[in-house]
Design brief:
Layout (H helix, E strand, L loop, with lengths): L2 H8 L3 H5 L7 E6 L6 H8 L7 E6 L6 H5 L6 E5 L4 H9 L3 E2 L7 H6 L5 E8 L7 E3 L7 H6 L1 E8 L13 E3 L5 E4 L15 H11 L7 E3 L4 H12 L6 E7 L1 H8 L15 E6 L3 H7 L5 E3 L2 H4 L2 H4 L5 E6 L2 E3 L4 E2 L2 E2 L2 E2 L6 H10 L4 E5 L3 E3 L5 E3 L1 E2 L17 E4 L2 E4 L5 H10 L3 H13 L9
Length: about 450
């Protein structure tokens, strides 16, 4: 049978695909830009027909339709492995549960059978002449997901860019059970966030620590945008890309001639990533670009990979840090905000890299809903706050007030360093708290 015949034989409507669902099924709706559209929408319309469904996803770029169809979660529960803005209210209301994870381990959760999957659904690019469907922008743990699933369904989206990556980034038609076609919506993305003057100050402290030939891992948001802008203005050259998340900032750095990846000692010449979210411009840059290569997260994020890359530089954000240098990117008290992502993986790997550095960045303070200034530097975390990087793993922390290297520092030296990064309005109070904690000496400034 030809691949064209196989394709036609496996075609199914989204409504017919929902007929495959049974009570109690575990259904994985994929990740970020690959997240199911057609199937999830059809399932939402019929969610009341089922009971005890277990749905999973991560990095959702819109609120899944099932929550509007069944706001009381009478017919399903939902597990999210990394939450962006659309999921935060659902965490707060208890409608969705967060699953803590070490991102580089995600494929192993499926391979070892810790996560059972009855149906796996994802968006893919159209089938090529050899019978392969490219995963597009989310290589991540995709292959492990479909290999461990009882039923594999792909949703063809003609607008999904084909991105390099070999078998880490494609599935053959014989490995697929059903194919859904639809109206080919635009691939979802995230807005480019402008950086202000305060963010530029943080960026300056970080970029001053960088060197030619460093290999970068950076995220998305105000501070990463500021860091990209600062690098573009700098004299840095021959930088490399090995990152969990490929974002528009990397395209800016590549087009400015700052990132070439040609001095990397591993994957030389390739801009390595595991998933991507950005603008249509970025997606077009990635399309069939042989230098941009998607690999599985257990390779990209693994500290054992990162520590072999010379001069690796990891730059991640945090919500709060305490006086010991512990950072949290996940929650404030019991209010869950995001997730650990790959921050810990890269913190560990970057420091072990020859000439490597890892940075945690944040603003020293923020305004609350009433317009009051609140310190992001705290004596200790509120009960329920989940630490992302423990104090022994912290290398550099930078705010708009300065930068501090924690390696080899005692607890009182750390307290002094952290307080120097705090907003001046809160420093005296933080000193008092450090004294109560017996981590402040009279010899401190």
């Amino acid at each position: 049978m030809s691949i064209t015949d196989k394709y036609q034989e496996k075609l199914i409507s989204a409504d017919k695909a929902v007929d495959l669902v049974k009570d109690g099924y575990y259904i994985d709706l994929s990740w970020a830009t690959s997240y199911s559209i057609y199937f999830e929408n059809a399932l939402a319309k019929r969610i009341n027909e089922f009971s005890d469904l277990h749905l999973r996803g991560g990095c959702e770029l819109k609120t899944p339709d099932v929550f509007e169809a069944d706001p009381e979660n009478k017919h399903f529960d939902y597990t999210c492995f990394h939450g962006l803005g659309p999921m935060r209210k659902l965490f707060s209301s208890g409608q969705s549960q967060y699953a803590p994870m070490k991102y580089s381990e995600m494929p192993s959760y499926y391979k070892r059978g810790y996560l059972k999957t009855n149906i796996y659904v994802m968006q893919v690019a159209p089938m090529d002449h050899n019978g392969f469907f490219n995963f597009g922008l989310a290589t991540s743990h995709t292959r492990a997901q479909f290999e461990s699933s009882d039923i594999v369904i792909v949703e063809v989206n003609e607008k999904m860019p084909v991105v390099s990556g070999g078998l880490d980034s494609a599935i053959y038609i014989d490995e697929i059970d059903y194919i859904i076609e639809g109206d080919n919506p635009d691939v979802r993305g995230i807005p480019i966030v402008a950086a202000g003057e305060a963010e530029a100050k943080v960026a300056k402290y970080v970029v001053d620590e960088l060197e030619d030939g460093m290999v970068l891992q950076i995220g998305v948001g105000n501070l990463p945008s500021a860091i990209v802008n600062e690098i573009v203005k700098s004299d840095l050259k021959d930088l490399g890309c090995h990152t969990e998340l490929f974002v528009d900032g990397f395209v800016d750095l590549i087009e400015a001639g700052k990132v070439t990846s040609l001095r990397k000692n591993i994957d030389r010449g390739n801009h390595i990533y595991t998933f991507a979210m950005g603008s249509p411009r970025m997606y077009e840059y990635m399309r069939e670009n042989p230098q941009v290569v998607g690999k599985t997260v257990d390779y990209v994020n693994s500290p054992s990979t990162v520590n072999r890359i010379d001069k690796f530089c990891s730059i991640n954000g945090a919500i709060q840090v305490d006086l010991h240098g512990v950072s949290s990117a996940e929650s404030v008290g019991t209010r869950h905000i995001s997730g650990s992502g790959g921050a810990l993986d890269f913190m560990l790997g970057a420091y072990e890299s020859e000439g490597g550095k890892s940075f945690i960045t944040l603003m020293s303070a923020r305004e609350d809903k009433e317009g009051n200034l609140v310190s992001n530097i705290v004596p200790t975390f509120a009960p329920g706050t989940q630490p992302t990087g423990v104090r022994a793993n912290t290398h550099y922390i930078a705010t708009e007030q300065g930068i501090f290297n924690f390696k080899g520092k005692s607890v009182w030296e750390r307290a002094e360093g952290v307080i120097s990064l705090a907003h001046p309005q809160f420093r005296d109070e933080l000193i008092k708290e450090a004294e109560k904690m017996n981590i402040w000496r009279r010899s401190n400034k």
